[in-house]
Amino acid sequence: MAEKRKLIQYANGPSLEEINGTVDVPKDKGFFKTLLAYSGPGALVAVGYMDPGNWSTSITGGQNFQYLLMSVILLSSLIAMLLQYMAAKLGIVSKMDLAQAIRARTSRSLGIVLWILTEFAIMATDIAEVIGGAIALYLLFNIPLVIAVFITVGDVLVLLLLTKIGFRKIEAIVVCLILVILFVFVYQVALSDPNWGAAFAGLVPTGKTFATHPTIGGQSPLQGALGIIGATVMPHNLYLHSAISQTRKVDHADEKSVAQNVRFSAWDSNIQLTAAFFVNALLLIMGVAVFKSGAVKDPSFFGLYQALSDTSTLSNGVLIAVAKSGILSTLFAVALLASGQNSTITGTLSGQVIMEGFVHMKMPLWLRRLVTRLLSVIPVLICVMLTSGKSSIDEHVALNDLMNNSQVFLAFALPFSMLPLLLMTDSATEMGKKFKNAIWIKGFGWFSVLALTGLNLYGLPDQIKAFYGDGITAAQSTQADIIAWVLIVAVVALLVWTLVDMHKGNERLKTELASEHVSSTYEHLAKLSREAGSEAEFDKEAVAER
């Protein structure tokens, strides 16, 4: 019993307490030296915007619609920069991560619901990482898929090692892996000699960008755009950034120190997300310029790997000459493996943030990773075993469909992180007059949140239909529409519950601040958080469970 108590503990302290405020930052130094000290958290966040889930959507979009969807990648990246800026600012100014801040203002039951919902979203992204990592191991070392899937569980040992070397070194490793991914795609696109004029023209959205026709490869421009948006903006990144932005030491009694932290965190985030934009843009350009139009019949990782070694699918003589050596396909698999390892680190930290924030539970990072990875492995193993007796194409398609269909959970979870984040950073009570959102940020923020929520819910019926496969009947289509609308109503009802609870929490905060004259908003928020759950309650529940 004592041993179990050590593994699962009550947590209601600073966000990611082991690394909170552990990184020194210079004062009154030059811009670049100061920026270097703040650089790192943005890289961990940017990883989520270039994970394996983004790859097939961007490449398929290029194959089907040329450079038309470049503007969608740009818009998604700009929205991501805005949301991540607000998440980092919330963490720095309030000294609470997004999960803690929401929990301090909402009921216990809603906190549990939001925790479960966000856990499903993290597991959905983890499924993409399992599939990407297993396929990379299979392609590089010819390891059977079932064994490769189990090997991906072993990355918990990598994480255990990383936790011993310090957070600053973890940031450096993540940056190096991002540079590997960026190099691979820059190299391959450079060899393809794309039409840069058409690529830059595609950055401007037109009426065709979100059109429902034509349908190419079973996909309309709107569906392609929704796929890119859904794979780009992920809820766990907002929770993560609000926590790791607090790793830098800051004197909260000094407004200038807080302002410096906010400013350089924004620079760090925007620089790293710009790199993520280039990776996703290069993936789309690969779909257009590296391969012949319509040549990629299998958009799965297997199909892309094979296409990069098949001279009949490539667009020019230089690519064909290099492909004969096998370097194009090998580099693709290396980048895929690097992407999966990067996501291992960020996914685990995100999970810890939401668990501590919403339900005040804490476990070692290695155990957290082991549990979530084993849960994510189950559907992948089932998929591999069910298709083991079929053709390799059927197996590839099934894994690709599982990865894409798992992303449906992101459509549920995203509004419950974006809306509270926007409400709290818009409030002078929460952030103070100096750090609340400026009018233009508030305007673009509401546009982005409403647009993303609307597009996710609008695309939900098609996502549900994708579970039925390509040969969907009229009856199944109707059934999928009914399921989608039930889910949409449930999401809207839960959003209303969240907003009502948030409003009540904010009104209570205003009243109590005015009556008690506390020295800072944070002190009162910390009090609310402590009242939201107590260690005695946790102990009682833990004993009952044991």
TrEMBL record:
<protein>
    <submittedName>
        <fullName>Manganese transporter NRAMP</fullName>
    </submittedName>
</protein>
<feature type="transmembrane region" description="Helical">
    <location>
        <begin position="408"/>
        <end position="425"/>
    </location>
</feature>
<feature type="transmembrane region" description="Helical">
    <location>
        <begin position="65"/>
        <end position="88"/>
    </location>
</feature>
<dbReference type="GO" id="GO:0005384">
    <property type="term" value="F:manganese ion transmembrane transporter activity"/>
</dbReference>
<feature type="transmembrane region" description="Helical">
    <location>
        <begin position="271"/>
        <end position="291"/>
    </location>
</feature>
<feature type="transmembrane region" description="Helical">
    <location>
        <begin position="172"/>
        <end position="190"/>
    </location>
</feature>
<feature type="transmembrane region" description="Helical">
    <location>
        <begin position="482"/>
        <end position="500"/>
    </location>
</feature>
<keyword id="KW-0472">Membrane</keyword>
<keyword id="KW-0813">Transport</keyword>
<feature type="transmembrane region" description="Helical">
    <location>
        <begin position="30"/>
        <end position="50"/>
    </location>
</feature>
<feature type="transmembrane region" description="Helical">
    <location>
        <begin position="134"/>
        <end position="160"/>
    </location>
</feature>
<dbReference type="GO" id="GO:0015086">
    <property type="term" value="F:cadmium ion transmembrane transporter activity"/>
</dbReference>
<feature type="transmembrane region" description="Helical">
    <location>
        <begin position="437"/>
        <end position="458"/>
    </location>
</feature>
<feature type="transmembrane region" description="Helical">
    <location>
        <begin position="370"/>
        <end position="388"/>
    </location>
</feature>
<dbReference type="GO" id="GO:0005886">
    <property type="term" value="C:plasma membrane"/>
</dbReference>
<dbReference type="Pfam" id="PF01566">
    <property type="entry name" value="Nramp"/>
</dbReference>
<dbReference type="InterPro" id="IPR001046">
    <property type="entry name" value="NRAMP_fam"/>
</dbReference>
<feature type="transmembrane region" description="Helical">
    <location>
        <begin position="109"/>
        <end position="128"/>
    </location>
</feature>
<dbReference type="GO" id="GO:0034755">
    <property type="term" value="P:iron ion transmembrane transport"/>
</dbReference>
<keyword id="KW-1133">Transmembrane helix</keyword>
<keyword id="KW-0812">Transmembrane</keyword>
